[in-house]
Structures are given as structure tokens and as C-alpha cells.
Amino acid sequence: MLEHPLLDWPALREVKLNLCLSLGSHLNWLREPAPLGFTLGYTDCRRLSHWPENLDVVLRAYDLAGEVRTWLEAHRAALADDFEVSLSLSLAGELMWVWLDAPGQRDPDFFAAYSAVSVALQRALRRWLPYAYFSDSNRYDVPLAAWPLLVYAAMPPFPGRAKYEFTYDIMDLGAASLIRRSTLRELTARLTRLRPFLIALGKHKTARFFAPDEAPAILATVARQPRRLNALLSAETFFVEALVDLGLRGHAFTESAARNRDQALRDLTRFTGQFVTAFQRRLRRLYAGQGFFSFGPLLLIEATRALATARGREAPLSALLRLTAGELEKSFVNAACTPAGQGSPPLGQPLPNQR
Question: Residues 119, 131: contact at Cβ < 8 Å?
Fold first, then answer.
């Protein structure tokens, strides 16, 4: 349990709740000011006609891949046509208070804490955006739109530099300079997995545009036409800067509340409203004209977990995967997920039956 002198202030609990509600409408089961034990959750649910190659990347990140792959091999025929994939993540809601304990600019752990937040957000975007976008496999049929996202996913997260540089700077370097040898290796590996997947779908013509030995040419093309890649890098910079600002505002609130608590609360309330509006506006057309509004709570969960861990707190992230195909239904959970308590699925979402 987090300890903070302001935790018992009901008005502040409601500010925290409003931030969570605004970034994730799926939390609308909370009608009253939240208890300290509520769960911050995110659920992605999709009906698919094939097993997306990019879903394996997502499942590995939450320690679900091995057991799922074994089960899939045994039930491949049942999942051949149409099935539903639902993945729920949950984090103890009390960890939201870590934003009030975030370091200020003069704190010695300022860079370590916010670079951890930045890397976590970059990784989340690199794993979730390809999965969501390419869940419609027809989007591979437009290589000039598919290639920049594949290159982005292959780029290593920027680890941070100096005190205030937390993301790639496209204005100083340009796309060609950002695409390094490590990106070529990762892109080649992704194409090695992707091409057989496209062939299995009957997309033989499309698969020719994603051959592993075409990786250098793909990188060169994206570097010459960097608009979509630059838009993604610009968006991730915006999200990271917004979250750093959230931490700095939380830090400032903790200091100013000791002098004038009511004014501090008004300032924080105003800021969180602006934060949510700007965050959702940037998600509206995140890639290729597509909106990804549901990513709001996902990014907040990943950032909160990273900040809490950087501040020395345990922040287990539970994951619940449910696969449904007709009468066949199977659920998988990671080690952090328990039937009740801190690792439970979001309230209002019971554990599914396992058949």
C-alpha cells in the first residue's frame, strides 16, 4: 500500500478517478469516488479470421506466449475460420498515486524515472500498434503504408540522453539517421516471420513486398519518404512529454498543497482536463488516418507501472487472455493474475469459463 499524506483527501481521489475515467471509458463501472483498492484496467477485444503474427509479440510481453502457443497447435482447426481474442491488463489503481511522488526537475533521479517511463511507452506502442493496425491483414496489401510501421516497430526504443532527451529527435537527425544497423537486423527478423504468414493467407503477390532480403530496400524507401515514420516518432515524443509533465505537475501539487490545498487542487484539476484532451486528440489519427482512442488507458497503465518500478515499488501487471471459437473457450493468465485482489481483472469483468 502506498503511503502519502494526501491519500485520504476525497477531492483528490476524485481527480485521480476522473483522469482514469477520461482516458478509459471502459472504467465507467466506477460511479462514486474510487476506493484505494480499485483496479486500473485495459481490455482489447477483436474478432479475427486468422491468428495475427503480431499478437505473439504482445503475448510475450505479458508472459503468455508459451502456454498459448502449445494450446493453439492442439486446436488449430477450431480457430481456422472465425474466433475472438480478448486480452485484459490490470494494475492496482492505488499505484496512480505514484504520480504525486514523481521526481521534480532538480531531483537526482529525475532522468532515471522519466527515461523508464519513456522506454515503457515506446515499447508499448511498438508492440500494440502493429497488432491493432495489421489485425486487418488487407493492410499489408498497401506496402507504402505498411513499411513505415514495420520499420518503427523494429527501431529500438530510445534509452534517453543527457537530462531532458527522452525520445528520438527527428528535427535534428532526420529519418535516414534514425534507421540504424540494429533496426535492419530486427526488421529482417520480422520479415522472416511475416512472409510465411502472408503466404499462408494466400497473399502470394503481397508477400513478395515483404521478403527478408528486401529489408535494406524497405529501410531506404522509408528514409526517402519519412512522413509516416516521422509522424509516429513525433506522436511518441508528444506522449512522453505529456507524461513527464504529468509527473512534474504531480510533484508540484504535492509541494503547493502544503501551502494552499484548495488552489493546488484547482490547478491539478485544470491540468488533468487539458492532459486528457490533448492525449485523446493525438490518438485520433495516430497512424495512416486511423484512430486508436482505446490506447489511452493502455499507455497510462504502462507509464504508471514504469514510474512505480523506477520509484522502488512493486507494480505487478496482470494479464488475462480469452480465446473463443464457437463452443470452444479457453482462458490464460500470467503469474501476476489471481482470482481476486491486486492482480485481479478489472472490476465488472469476471473470469471467463474454461471449457
Answer: no
81: phi then psi, degrees, rounded to nearest 5: -110, -65
* Residue 335 domain flag: no
Q: Which residues contact 235 (CB under 8 A, 6 or more apart)?
A: 282, 286
Q: How far is Cα 131 from Cα 133, in angstroms, rounded to an integer?
A: 6
Task: Give the residue among 59, 96, 78 at the shortest CA–CA distance from 304.
Answer: 96
Domain holding 260, by residue range, is 96-292+309-316
CA–CA dist 171, 303 (Å, integer): 25
Please, which residues have CB within 8 angstroms of residue 3's CB and are 6 or more apart in sequence?
none
Query: Rounded to a whole number, what is the distance in angstroms from the first to the last CA of the chain?
Result: 36
Measure the CA–CA gap between 37 and 136, rounded to whole angstroms: 37
Number of compact structural domains in the chain: 1
CA 285 to chain centre: 16
Q: Average pLDDT, whole number, for the chain?
A: 83
Query: Is residue 15 in some structural domain?
Result: no
Q: What is the pTM of this model?
A: 0.85
The answer to whether position 69 is within a domain reads: no
Q: For 138-197, how does the pLDDT look when each residue is reduced to its tens digit (9 = 90+)?
A: 999 999 999 999 999 999 999 998 878 999 988 765 566 667 788 999 999 999 999 999
CB 86 within 8 A of CB 332: no
